[in-house]
Amino acid sequence: MDVITNNLDLWGEVLVGTLILFFGGGLVALILGTIVGAMRVSPIPVARAVGTIYVNIIRNTPLTLVFFAFAFALPPILGLRLTGDVSLTLAISALGIYTATYVAETIRSGINTVPVGQAEAARALGMTFGQVMGFVVMPQAFRSVIPPMMSVFIALLKNTTVAAGFSVVNLGSIRNYLSERGENQFIVILWVMAIFVALVLVLSFVQRTLENRWKVAR
Amino acid sequence: MTSVLYDVPGPRAIARNRVLGVLTVLVVAGVLGFIVWRLIETGQFTAEKWQAFTYTNVWVQIALSAWRTLAAFGVAAVGALVLGFVLAIGRLSDHAWIRIPVGAVVEVLRAVPVLIFMFLLYYGLPVLGIRMESYWAVVIALVAYNGSVLAEVIRAGVESLPRGQSEAGYAIGLRKAGVMRLVLLPQAIRAMMPVIIAQLVVTLKDTALGFIITYPELLFYARYLGSQSTYGSPIVPMTIVVGSIYIALCLLLSLIATVVERRLRRSPRAPGVTRADVAAHQITDTQVIGAQSAADIAAARRGLGKYDGTSGGGAV
Which CATH number characterizes residue A118's domain? Predict the structure, then answer.
């Protein structure tokens, strides 16, 4: 416990760092993922192809490689100076671009779980496109998307630690700072593990609550 | 083509789709064009930046690094499969004193980021006097994490089989081990094969984390050579080359998963209890019709199935 109470400043800083990466990356992933997901189910063949290529390539790229490209290859190409803020922005972009593929796939499979007959019935009733989407398709798709989407975000939370390898402050990098202060690294890492288990438990509790509340009755 | 989202397009919709298609092409071409322009502008295509690749030794080192990546992956994959079966069987045990501790271990291992586990092995354990090479830290962490994820996959496969399967096994006089080995596991593995291979792709991807704890795999060498000023610091060319190797390896493994999945779906030997039943057991028929691929079913199952415990997100 001393490891934490003696270094409260640092623990607070890294926890904030992790949360910034988590929410920043999550926001980028949600926006980009929704666009790509929409492209993948659109009636436009070119958009579908672009979406498929993006998802297939990024999903087969290690996250560490995405970070590597953003942290080491991109700055010389764009002529960026690596300050703390730039590093953080690059890390959030890397996390967002990687996670967006999973968001896109989750959205796509959520829409695919809605039977075609539902939309056809709605159209047969004379509903407009907006009504079909707003009253019939999206409410069903949204509910079946929520639990797997939470899984994607749990994975994103764990993936924020990769940023520690690219000099961005987060829970993964506290080991480095505390070993300089002469703390026992083994204990420090055990605490980090405990924090992650706790955070994941919270997220999966939210997941289960939402799942039960929004179960689709068929 | 009708889908949930749109009807067969009429003349106006066709015209609008065409405009949107052209717009997509323009945006994509713009992004790619910008990247290529910056690459040319910063001189990444000059001979000087690529001279490193004219040396045999550089390629030998790249091959050696790729070998180390694959060596970590191979051992970790086999270990994770073994651990996965052990943990799955433990979690399916009838004895609470086995089931509950194993369940706790699985949940904790799934909740801890792989990188943190590698840190524990590589930086934490030396404090207790246990030192290991970075190779073993990478392999053990990957085995622990992917083993626990695979355990959940296998367990979900077994639990999704109709009860009649194990009841029939007991009825013809098999014991618990026999029912598990001869009846349940073969069907569960068959149904879950695509998910299992997908998890192996994750294992391959995660070997790249070894870079952060100084395991000399592909990225490590890319960083090393990329910072050599005698070769003009070719970090961008190295990223392109090494990145292509990594992506090619992962795509190859994903391709195998797709082929296996397609073959499974066609196979005449597939018994009555396969994918469709496994899925139908957990999610309703309408969803099965809606779900267009096994991946969708797997995703839907992961989300909706009551068998996925807590932490989840394994396949990411």
Answer: 1.10.3720.10
Name A165's Cβ contacts closer than 8 Å, sequence gap at least 6: A64, A67, A172, B115, B209, B211, B212
For A91, the domain range is 2-213
Q: Let me know if residue A83 belongs to a domain.
A: yes
Which residues of A, range 36-55, sit inside 8 Å of B by Cβ? Answer: 39, 41-47, 50
Q: In a structure prediction context, what are the per-residue pLDDT tens digits for chain A, which is 218 residues long?
A: 777 788 888 889 899 999 999 999 999 999 999 999 989 988 888 999 999 999 999 999 999 999 999 999 998 888 888 788 899 999 999 999 999 999 999 999 888 888 888 888 998 999 888 888 889 888 888 888 888 899 999 999 999 999 998 888 888 888 888 888 888 888 889 999 999 999 999 999 998 888 888 776 65
Which one of B25, B120, B309 has the shortest CB-CB distance to A189? Answer: B120
The structural domain count of chain A equals 1
Predicted interface score ipTM higher than 0.85 = yes
- Give the predicted TM-score (pTM) of the model: 0.85
Q: Which residue of B has its CA nearest to A134?
A: B5
CB-based contact, B211 to chain A, within 8 Å: yes
Residues B179 and B277 in one domain: yes
Q: What 8-state DSSP symbol labels residue B126?
A: G
Residues B286 and B171 in one domain: yes
Task: Give the domain extent around B17.
Answer: 1-41
